[in-house]
Amino acid sequence: MTDYIIKDIALAEYGRKELDIAETEMPGLMALRAEYGAAKPLAGARIVGSLHMTIQTAVLIETLVDLGADVRWASCNIYSTQDHAAAAIAKAGVPVFAIKGQSLEEHWDYLDRSFQFPEGPNLILDDGGDATLYVLLGARAEAGEDVIAVPQSDEETVIKAQIRKRMEQSPGWFTRMRDQIVGVSEETTTGVHRLYDLMKNGQLPFPAINVNDSVTKSKFDNKYGCKESLVDGIRRATDVMMAGKVAVVCGYGDVGKGSAASLQGAGARVKVTEVDPICALQAAMDGFEVVTLEDVADSADIFITTTGNRDVIRLEHMRAMKDMAIVGNIGHFDNEIQVASLRNHKWTNIKDQVDMIEMPSGNRIILLSQGRLLNLGNATGHPSFVMSASFTNQVLAQIELWTKADEYKPGVYILPKHLDEKVARLHLEKVGAKLSSLSPEQAAYIGVTPEGPFKSDHYRY
Ligand code: NAI
Predict the structure, then answer these.
(1) Residues in domain S-adenosyl-L-homocysteine hydrolase NAD binding (predicted)?
(2) Helix 226-238 and helix 254-265: axis angle, to 10°?
């Protein structure tokens, strides 16, 4: 029986070739296979994965399997799947449910399917928190709480319908799933915000590892990853000449810093909007003009949101934009741009994930990936090397949760610094970096040991 939903299994061979190449660029994951492949620390683990089904994720999945885990996978975004990657994984025998361009209804159905191990999963590997949300919201609904009654958005309507369907098919299912999950590891800033909210409200029933805030994740993937993949997405979507254009980056956190650098590297004149005075000052001292969106809406050529916040580019901004302005988002969810408010405008589809929308003034805007993260919707996301650092943290987090479940109470944790440093160390050789070492006297002088950790927890990098 085929236990997968993918675009086309015939793409598996192409996927496998790209996987072979990606492995050569993912030294952290390959080192974990060499270190732990024989010991199988994840034996008995049944991991439900909800994370962009790309070539790099395929290498992550095969690493988890190599370490002994059973895995089922769904993508965490309707546009981010690479169909050849999904095919290669399906062909290798891992149940995967992901198609580039799947509908929202399919998206939540596929997430549900990724939970359907015969005995249910015991670990979640999440990106953005949808898998965690699904179980916890469903369990609250089963407990009689009025949480699925009134949807606030189109997507909520779909999620709540999916929860209702599962409750009818398998009474008590969500509660059973919640009770057997021993932990979750979370990939991204937005998912981490959700976890801290759950913890604050006393609604997090299991331990969670915040992978995003490993230094070797957010200071690399969010920054250097976006530096490569943002412009890649805009180019594949539009082929627009970037040099000389005025680009506005909304938000100057880790993703904003990488995105501004990406556009600057392509020759664009970059402006930044921020609400946080520290990040605004960083942007100014990195050489970017800090502006308000209102002041530049009618003059800039390219607008990119990177905030993880809602309603950042609103209808009034889009109405002010000049003809053929490009609008896109690289943050996790599509609510950064008020796409819903454009639905009653005239849309012309140019190609997959590129739409032209006519404003009442007659000016048109080019909207990328309907406001969903454009580096994965219009291109192929970050390069393998930087994802190796992120996913090495993911695998270490899964091992930690599975092998030390008793040591963690419900709460949100960050991997210890020695593991963070280990992840970086595993990536040095590939870039030809030679590390210096501390003499015992030097180590004592700065208050560390020669083997590390080399920084205190409050150091900010
Ligand atoms: P962050 O918290 O470091 O940065 C967000 C910045 O936006 C903050 O500095 C904040 O002050 C600013 N901001 C918030 N509201 C604003 C507003 N209304 N106007 C202007 N600035 C505003 O978060 P990070 O790590 O940069 O992540 C941003 C988003 O990108 C999250 O949703 C995250 O999940 C996602 N992400 C996407 C990736 C991708 O490949 N597409 C990779 C990594 C993260």
Answers:
(1) 222-381
(2) 60
